[in-house]
Amino acid sequence: MNFRNISAWAIRNPVPPLVLFMFLTLAGIISFMRMGVSLQPDIDFPIVWISISQPGASPVEMETQVAQKVEAAARSVQGVEEINSTVTEGNSQTVVQLAIGTPIDRAVEDMRSQISQIRSSLPDGILEPQVGRADTASENDIANFAVVSTDMSLERLLVVADALAKSVVLAHDEKEVTNVFDTIEPFARELATSGQTSKSRTDLLKLLGNSLLVQQHVAGRVAVDEKPDVLWDRPDLERLYARLEDEYELSERVEILNRKLEVISDTATTLADILEAKRSLRLELIVIFLIAFEIVVTAYEIFARGGH
């Protein structure tokens, strides 16, 4: 069957082509409406860091004898856009930002090669240079802290740092949960008042996505209610950790956070049910429309044939 025969057949039988055309049009509209849009796309910024330590060296020595030479070597790597160095007593940290799209693994290897070439020109007392990549795409890091003390043992310092880190994690999770609660509240009030929601499918999907996202983030955090490992070797520090736990109210905050997560989980289930109900209703309306359209076209075809 050539194209002319297909055209002639479609003219003699207009119903199947029209139904197919309407089906494809509706399918295209539905696909467009369901197309996902990411407000925060996953972008991995290629960043390489170089860390060199020399115990006892002054910041001035680290800058002139280490940092400046490392920066000069790093500039020869392809794709370098920005170089920043931080020098403290006995340590030099250099962060190299590369152009987006630069192969990060190859850049790290090139940077190691450049550092190896200048290794002989660096001071003899330095430790082995460390080169690595920064994981900017990860969402697990909330904050970075450095804890320094001159009158505490390492074990006591670990206990204090553990309690502080857990408090920071809880504060971040509490903020995320509160934001989701502020979004859920008008939706819950509307359901309680009218028994239905005026939110569009897109708004419901965003609300469902936020609910699932905060559950995923909070569930993936470190277990705040677990005690630090150092207490296994130093049980005498239990009282210190208990004091810190009580001061930061860790247990109470974890309990409240878990209860809020249960409410968010129930809300997510309700949203999924509402979306499924709206989807079923929409499909039923589409089927009804196609049937009505086919009836109208068939009636018109019969009427046209009867007129002839």
Provide an overview of this structure.
- By secondary structure, this protein is α+β, with helices and mostly antiparallel strands.
- It has two domains: 14-42 and 147-308, no CATH class; 47-133, 2-Layer Sandwich (Alpha-Beta Plaits).
- The chain has helices at residues 3-12, 15-33, 59-74, 104-117, 154-194, 201-219, 230-233, 238-247, 250-307; strands at residues 47-53, 80-88, 91-98, 130-133.
- The protein has a four-stranded antiparallel beta sheet, covered by helices on one side.
- α5 packs antiparallel against α6 (201-219), α5 packs parallel to α8 and α5 runs parallel beside α9.
- The relative contact order is 0.09.
- The model has no long low-confidence stretch (mean pLDDT 78).
User: Any idea what the radius of gyration is?
Assistant: 32 Å
Work out the number of β strands. 4
Which class do the helix and strand fractions yield? alpha+beta
Taking the alpha carbons of the first and last residues, their distance comes to 28 Å
* Rounded average pLDDT: 78
Order of helices and strands: HHEHEEHEHHHHH
The number of helical elements comes to: 9
Task: Pick out its properties.
2 domains, 308 residues, Alpha-Beta Plaits, alpha+beta
What's the short story on this structure?
The chain is α+β, with helices and mostly antiparallel strands and 308 residues long. It has helices spanning 3-12, 15-33, 59-74, 104-117, 154-194, 201-219, 230-233, 238-247, 250-307, and strands spanning 47-53, 80-88, 91-98, 130-133.
